[in-house]
Amino acid sequence: MSESPEAVYLGFGSNLGNRQRNIERAIELLRERITIERVSSIYETAPVGVVEQPDFLNAVCKATTRMPPREMLDLAQEIETYMGRVPGPPGGPRSLDIDLLLYGSVTLETAKVTIPHPRMARRAFVLVPLAEIAPDVVHPILGKTARELMAAVEGKETVRRFDPEEAYWKGLKRGKLPVPPRKDR
Questions:
Q1: What mean pLDDT comes out for the span 44-57?
Q2: Three-class secondary structure of residue 167 per DSSP
Q3: Residues 168, 28: Cα–Cα separation, whole Å
Q4: Judging by beta carbons within 10 Å of its beta carbon (0-12, 13-18, 19+), is residue 3 exposed, middle or buried?
Q5: Is the entire prediction scored with pTM above 0.85?
Q6: What confidence tens digit (pLDDT) does each residue in 10-39 have?
Q7: Average per-residue pLDDT in the chain?
Q8: Would you kindly state where each structural domain of the chain is located, as residue ranges?
Q9: CATH class for the domain made up of 6-175
Q10: Residue 175 in this model has a pLDDT that exceeds 90
Protein backbone atom coordinates (compact mmCIF):
# COMPACT_ATOMS: atom_id res chain seq x y z
CA MET A 1 0.00 0.00 0.00
CA SER A 2 1.03 3.54 -0.73
CA GLU A 3 2.14 5.92 2.05
CA SER A 4 -0.37 8.65 1.27
CA PRO A 5 -3.74 8.31 -0.48
CA GLU A 6 -3.82 8.85 -4.23
CA ALA A 7 -6.67 10.39 -6.19
CA VAL A 8 -8.07 7.76 -8.54
CA TYR A 9 -10.62 8.25 -11.30
CA LEU A 10 -12.69 5.27 -12.40
CA GLY A 11 -15.01 5.02 -15.39
CA PHE A 12 -18.13 2.83 -15.39
CA GLY A 13 -20.15 1.45 -18.28
CA SER A 14 -23.12 -0.90 -18.52
CA ASN A 15 -25.48 -1.87 -21.33
CA LEU A 16 -27.01 -5.13 -20.08
CA GLY A 17 -29.55 -5.71 -17.33
CA ASN A 18 -30.49 -2.85 -15.03
CA ARG A 19 -27.75 -0.56 -16.30
CA GLN A 20 -28.27 2.19 -13.73
CA ARG A 21 -28.35 -0.24 -10.81
CA ASN A 22 -25.24 -2.04 -12.10
CA ILE A 23 -23.25 1.21 -11.90
CA GLU A 24 -24.73 2.23 -8.55
CA ARG A 25 -24.02 -1.21 -7.04
CA ALA A 26 -20.44 -1.20 -8.32
CA ILE A 27 -19.87 2.15 -6.60
CA GLU A 28 -21.40 0.77 -3.38
CA LEU A 29 -19.02 -2.21 -3.52
CA LEU A 30 -16.02 0.04 -4.18
CA ARG A 31 -17.04 2.22 -1.24
CA GLU A 32 -16.42 -0.79 1.05
CA ARG A 33 -12.70 -0.71 0.13
CA ILE A 34 -11.84 2.83 -0.98
CA THR A 35 -13.05 6.35 -0.25
CA ILE A 36 -15.44 7.61 -2.92
CA GLU A 37 -15.29 11.41 -3.01
CA ARG A 38 -17.40 12.39 -6.03
CA VAL A 39 -19.65 10.63 -8.51
CA SER A 40 -20.74 12.14 -11.81
CA SER A 41 -24.21 12.10 -13.21
CA ILE A 42 -25.04 9.05 -15.27
CA TYR A 43 -24.94 9.56 -19.03
CA GLU A 44 -26.43 7.53 -21.86
CA THR A 45 -24.41 6.95 -25.00
CA ALA A 46 -24.59 4.92 -28.17
CA PRO A 47 -22.09 2.07 -28.34
CA VAL A 48 -18.72 2.73 -29.96
CA GLY A 49 -17.18 0.16 -32.29
CA VAL A 50 -19.67 -2.70 -32.12
CA VAL A 51 -22.85 -0.71 -32.72
CA GLU A 52 -25.41 -3.55 -32.87
CA GLN A 53 -26.02 -3.62 -29.13
CA PRO A 54 -27.99 -1.65 -26.51
CA ASP A 55 -26.96 1.88 -25.52
CA PHE A 56 -24.58 2.25 -22.59
CA LEU A 57 -24.92 4.12 -19.36
CA ASN A 58 -21.63 5.69 -18.25
CA ALA A 59 -20.35 7.50 -15.16
CA VAL A 60 -17.06 8.46 -13.52
CA CYS A 61 -16.09 8.64 -9.88
CA LYS A 62 -13.22 10.19 -8.00
CA ALA A 63 -11.86 8.15 -5.12
CA THR A 64 -8.83 8.07 -2.89
CA THR A 65 -6.93 4.94 -2.03
CA ARG A 66 -3.65 3.66 -0.70
CA MET A 67 -3.85 0.60 -2.96
CA PRO A 68 -1.20 0.40 -5.63
CA PRO A 69 -2.48 0.61 -9.22
CA ARG A 70 -2.36 -3.13 -9.93
CA GLU A 71 -4.33 -3.91 -6.77
CA MET A 72 -6.87 -1.22 -7.69
CA LEU A 73 -7.33 -2.79 -11.12
CA ASP A 74 -7.71 -6.24 -9.51
CA LEU A 75 -10.45 -4.87 -7.24
CA ALA A 76 -12.28 -3.36 -10.23
CA GLN A 77 -12.12 -6.68 -12.09
CA GLU A 78 -13.32 -8.61 -9.02
CA ILE A 79 -16.36 -6.32 -8.85
CA GLU A 80 -17.03 -6.75 -12.58
CA THR A 81 -17.01 -10.53 -12.16
CA TYR A 82 -19.14 -10.38 -9.01
CA MET A 83 -21.65 -8.25 -10.90
CA GLY A 84 -21.95 -10.89 -13.63
CA ARG A 85 -19.55 -9.77 -16.34
CA VAL A 86 -18.50 -12.63 -18.56
CA PRO A 87 -15.72 -12.58 -21.13
CA GLY A 88 -16.84 -11.38 -24.53
CA PRO A 89 -15.58 -9.60 -27.61
CA PRO A 90 -13.77 -6.29 -27.09
CA GLY A 91 -16.31 -3.46 -27.28
CA GLY A 92 -19.18 -5.92 -26.94
CA PRO A 93 -22.13 -5.80 -24.56
CA ARG A 94 -21.47 -6.09 -20.84
CA SER A 95 -23.29 -5.87 -17.56
CA LEU A 96 -20.45 -3.81 -16.10
CA ASP A 97 -17.14 -2.36 -17.16
CA ILE A 98 -14.87 -0.50 -14.74
CA ASP A 99 -11.85 1.30 -16.18
CA LEU A 100 -8.97 2.75 -14.17
CA LEU A 101 -8.67 6.14 -15.90
CA LEU A 102 -6.19 8.09 -13.78
CA TYR A 103 -4.17 7.27 -10.69
CA GLY A 104 -2.75 10.52 -9.32
CA SER A 105 -0.06 11.72 -11.72
CA VAL A 106 1.20 8.17 -12.25
CA THR A 107 2.06 6.95 -15.72
CA LEU A 108 2.45 3.21 -15.97
CA GLU A 109 2.50 0.66 -18.76
CA THR A 110 2.70 -3.04 -17.98
CA ALA A 111 1.20 -6.14 -19.57
CA LYS A 112 -1.77 -5.87 -17.17
CA VAL A 113 -2.39 -2.15 -16.62
CA THR A 114 -1.83 1.11 -18.49
CA ILE A 115 -2.30 4.43 -16.69
CA PRO A 116 -3.66 6.80 -17.78
CA HIS A 117 -6.24 4.74 -19.66
CA PRO A 118 -4.87 4.65 -23.22
CA ARG A 119 -8.14 5.60 -24.96
CA MET A 120 -9.70 8.00 -22.46
CA ALA A 121 -8.73 11.17 -24.37
CA ARG A 122 -10.71 9.92 -27.41
CA ARG A 123 -13.84 8.88 -25.52
CA ALA A 124 -16.55 11.48 -25.05
CA PHE A 125 -18.44 9.07 -22.78
CA VAL A 126 -15.48 9.24 -20.38
CA LEU A 127 -14.55 12.90 -20.73
CA VAL A 128 -18.03 14.39 -20.28
CA PRO A 129 -18.59 12.82 -16.82
CA LEU A 130 -14.93 13.30 -15.86
CA ALA A 131 -15.09 17.01 -16.71
CA GLU A 132 -18.32 17.29 -14.69
CA ILE A 133 -16.64 16.20 -11.44
CA ALA A 134 -13.00 17.17 -12.06
CA PRO A 135 -12.67 19.73 -14.85
CA ASP A 136 -9.17 20.73 -13.76
CA VAL A 137 -7.63 17.27 -13.34
CA VAL A 138 -4.64 17.04 -15.68
CA HIS A 139 -3.89 14.11 -18.00
CA PRO A 140 -0.30 13.27 -16.93
CA ILE A 141 0.94 12.55 -20.46
CA LEU A 142 -1.01 15.03 -22.58
CA GLY A 143 -0.72 17.86 -20.03
CA LYS A 144 -4.32 18.93 -20.68
CA THR A 145 -7.21 19.23 -18.25
CA ALA A 146 -10.35 17.13 -18.48
CA ARG A 147 -12.18 20.29 -19.54
CA GLU A 148 -9.73 20.91 -22.40
CA LEU A 149 -9.85 17.28 -23.53
CA MET A 150 -13.65 17.29 -23.45
CA ALA A 151 -13.82 20.51 -25.49
CA ALA A 152 -11.68 18.88 -28.20
CA VAL A 153 -13.20 15.38 -28.31
CA GLU A 154 -15.54 14.36 -31.11
CA GLY A 155 -19.00 13.07 -30.27
CA LYS A 156 -19.59 14.92 -27.00
CA GLU A 157 -22.96 16.13 -28.29
CA THR A 158 -24.19 12.51 -28.34
CA VAL A 159 -23.45 12.01 -24.62
CA ARG A 160 -26.72 12.85 -22.89
CA ARG A 161 -27.58 12.93 -19.21
CA PHE A 162 -29.61 9.84 -18.33
CA ASP A 163 -33.17 10.47 -17.22
CA PRO A 164 -34.56 7.34 -15.50
CA GLU A 165 -38.13 8.63 -15.67
CA GLU A 166 -37.89 9.21 -19.41
CA ALA A 167 -36.40 5.73 -19.84
CA TYR A 168 -39.26 4.27 -17.82
CA TRP A 169 -41.89 5.90 -20.00
CA LYS A 170 -40.11 4.91 -23.21
CA GLY A 171 -40.13 1.33 -21.94
CA LEU A 172 -43.86 1.49 -21.25
CA LYS A 173 -44.53 2.87 -24.71
CA ARG A 174 -42.52 0.05 -26.25
CA GLY A 175 -44.56 -2.46 -24.28
CA LYS A 176 -47.85 -1.03 -25.58
CA LEU A 177 -47.06 -1.48 -29.24
CA PRO A 178 -49.20 -4.13 -30.93
CA VAL A 179 -47.57 -7.50 -31.39
CA PRO A 180 -47.18 -8.27 -35.09
CA PRO A 181 -49.05 -11.40 -36.26
CA ARG A 182 -47.06 -14.53 -36.92
CA LYS A 183 -46.34 -15.03 -40.59
CA ASP A 184 -46.59 -18.84 -40.51
CA ARG A 185 -50.37 -18.87 -39.88
A1: 87
A2: helix
A3: 23
A4: exposed
A5: yes
A6: 999 999 999 999 999 999 999 999 999 999
A7: 89
A8: 6-175
A9: alpha beta
A10: no
Contacts 24+ apart (CB under 8 A), 102-106: 102/7, 102/8, 102/9, 102/137, 102/139, 102/140, 103/6, 103/7, 103/8, 103/9, 103/69, 103/72, 104/6, 104/7, 104/8, 105/138, 105/140, 106/6, 106/69, 106/140
Q: b/e string for 133-149 if b means 16 or more Cβ within 10 A? A: bbeebebeeeeebbbbb
H or E segment at 27?
helix 19-31
Query: What crossing angle do the helices spanning 69-82 and 19-31 adopt, rounded to 10°?
Result: 140
Report, as residue numbers or ranges, the catalytic residues.
85, 94, 97, 99
pLDDT at 185 over 70: no
Distance between CA atoms of 184 and 81, rounded to whole angstroms?
42
What gap in Å lies between CA 57 and CA 22, rounded to an integer?
10
